[in-house]
Design goal:
alpha+beta, 8 helices
């Protein structure tokens, strides 16, 4: 069985999945374990809706109706990226996007091909399971941090089972459409989707390098000899 270090090292955003079902019992076991995720004051502010089969197809079909409308159909409930994102943060975001399209052989000038590929977000990249995460609207940044830890815990437990995932904040742009077909409480904010399944680890979109910043850009040491 995979240890934690191996799970961390092999977890990546998977954007191509095998046509292989996910066992509900395995997923329930993972989610039960993930309930041990740390949260401030033990608030456990995370909520998830796990879709597969017909409910998932209804969601994908509904969103597909509005994908051709482009940004005119977008109505996110929060900024996926800060409008003022700059410097290294923006460079990393831009860089991973360019690496993805390079791996797919889609040049920068082929805007239509890039848009068509981006639309695969809203097919959950072919994953058989999509989990939608939401939380009460009054929750603040500390609780959103807790939700992030919960999602990461799920991702690592999926790796332990040999499965994969992709965190998809892109789904946030279609919050109204999602609410039409999925029962998310009105007093909750929709956060993100999480595609879940068996990753096609040989597909080029799952093999390109995703560099991480060196440790000294993220951590400063004080009081150490």
């Amino acid at each position: 069985m995979m240890n934690v270090s191996e799970a961390v090292a092999t977890r990546r955003s998977i954007r191509a999945f095998l046509d292989k079902p996910v066992d509900r019992a395995v997923l329930e076991r993972i989610l039960e374990k993930a309930q041990r995720t740390a949260s401030g004051g033990n608030t456990q502010p995370w909520h998830g809706i796990v879709l597969t089969g017909d409910p998932l197809r209804r969601l994908l079909d509904r969103v597909a109706e509005d994908v051709p409308k482009g940004r005119a159909a977008f109505a996110p409930e929060y900024h996926v990226y800060p409008p003022e994102l700059d410097r290294n943060y923006e460079a990393r975001r831009f860089g991973v996007g360019e690496a993805l399209y390079a791996a797919l052989g889609i040049p920068r000038e082929d805007k239509m091909a890039r848009l068509m590929w981006f639309a695969r977000n809203f097919q959950a990249f072919g994953a058989p399971v999509l989990m939608l995460a939401h939380t009460p609207k009054y929750m603040g940044p500390p609780q959103w941090s807790d939700i992030g830890m919960w999602l990461q815990t799920i991702a690592l437990l999926l790796r332990e089972e040999g499965m994969d995932s992709c965190f998809q904040e892109a789904w946030a742009v279609y919050s109204p459409q999602i609410r039409e077909v999925v029962d998310i409480p009105e007093d909750h904010i929709f956060f993100c989707g999480m595609a879940i399944g068996w990753g096609d680890r040989e597909d080029p979109v799952n093999t390109f390098p995703v560099p991480r910043a060196p440790l000294d850009e993220a951590v400063r040491w004080e009081g150490w000899d």
